[in-house]
Amino acid sequence: MSYRVEVDGFEKTQSLKTLAASLKGYVDEALKHAAELCVAEAKRLAPVRTGRLRDSIRILEQGEGYVTVGSDVEYAPYVEYGTYRMAPRSFLRPAVWDAVYAFQELIEVRVERIG
Fold first, then answer.
1. Cβ neighbours of residue 37 closer than 8 Å, sequence gap 6 or more
2. What whole-number distance in Å separates Cα of residue 20 and Cα of residue 26?
3. Which residue from 62, 63, 100, 106 has the fewest beta carbons nearer than 10 Å?
4. Residue 12 forms part of a structural domain
5. Residues 11-54: tens digit of each pLDDT
6. pLDDT of 57-102, one tens digit each?
7. Which residue(s) pair with 34 in the sheet?
8. How far is Cα 26 from Cα 112, in angstroms, rounded to an integer?
9. Which residue range forms the structural domain that includes residue 70?
10. Residue 74 falls within a domain, yes or no?
11. How far is CA 47 from the centre of its chain?
């Protein structure tokens, strides 16, 4: 799965190399911020019986250019996607989409400042 960010009004004279260099350090910062928003929203949306699922949602892994948010609770996928006996109660996918939009906004603002 991939995502595309479009920015209107970006001056064509600005080279992509210069833009990439300007964004290099900022992308990881924006990813971390978006991931933190994702964690908060997923915790808010997670169904709570004991609180174990909600409390397990966190940033699982991060590196240069990526962040993984999720839960290591064994039943988390069953809650997210449902089973033949239980309807899905999505908590992570909506939070991820919110984080994607937040990341997009952060990058757009930064590009506008550069351009």
1. 98, 99, 102
2. 10
3. 63
4. no
5. 554 566 676 677 777 888 999 999 999 999 999 999 999 999 99
6. 999 999 888 999 999 999 999 999 999 999 999 999 999 999 999 9
7. none
8. 13
9. 37-114
10. yes
11. 20
Instruction: Quote the strand ranges of 17-109, DSSP E.
Output: 58-63, 66-70
Q: Is residue 79 assigned to a domain?
A: yes
Burial class (CB in 10 A: 0-12, 13-18, 19+), 40: middle
Domain count, the chain: 1
Predicted pLDDT at 113:
79
- What pTM, to 2 d.p., does this model score? 0.79
- 96 domain-assigned: yes
What the block records as the tokens of 64 is: 């240069």
Residues 6 or more apart in contact with residue 54 via CB below 8 angstroms: 43, 46, 48
Measure the CA angle with vertex 55, ends 53 and 61; round to 5°. Answer: 95
Give dist(CA 97, CA 43) in Å, integer.
14
